[in-house]
Specification:
The chain is α/β, with parallel strands linked by helices. Helix content is 47%, strand content 16%. α3 packs across α11.
Amino acid sequence: MTTVCRSCRVRRGHSPASRTKREADLRLAGLRSAGLYCIIDRELIGRRSPIAVAEAMIAGGARLIQYRDKVSEPGDVYRACKRLRPMLRKADVLFVVNDYPDIAVAVGADGVHVGVNDLPVSACRRVVGEEMLIGRSSHSLDEALKGAAQPIDYLAVGAIFATMTKPEYAVVGLDLLAEVRKSVELPLIAIGGITLRNLDEVFARGADGVAIVSDILNASDITHHVRSLMRHIKRRRRCTTE
């Protein structure tokens, strides 16, 4: 009779490969259902703590939060992300790190977002592995198509409207969003100048979610504003499915 060491057994359906696939699927499902993609921008929040801003977003019902820091040293970005990670995990909120796949891995984030001129997606995927979400920015149909051909999980399209967050990017408008929707099956996150007033237009053109920065961070009450955005998005989804 052959004995098998208990530590050597691998239960069917629980191999490392299947676990990785399952975790990746859960994160992607969370991304699709989030609706609102909240971004904490280090420069925009000024002296406010990223933790306090994240707490306000969570209290408003946020299900996905990205930390974006274009002004700090990598060590400071890491320390901020390390503090954010446990509170977001406890709240069951997806956590995406902007620009830094190595920091995303180091803190155990759910995803990383990269721009067109950042680390190539293929290299990024080698760093973060298969279970972590990778998002990529696109500012034209060509960039969107090239991005969709790479091992990513979602595309950000923008700037849809004029925005002070990234004034260097040209406004691409709703027509580009609609054009990308016809060509790409990946989840699309619209970004740039999006507010409660134009949410319906954005979703009508094919967005699966909206990334909002300044409209949330400049609100006098972040919790109340996020709650209003989430209610509007949920209401629209109910109307669409009925």
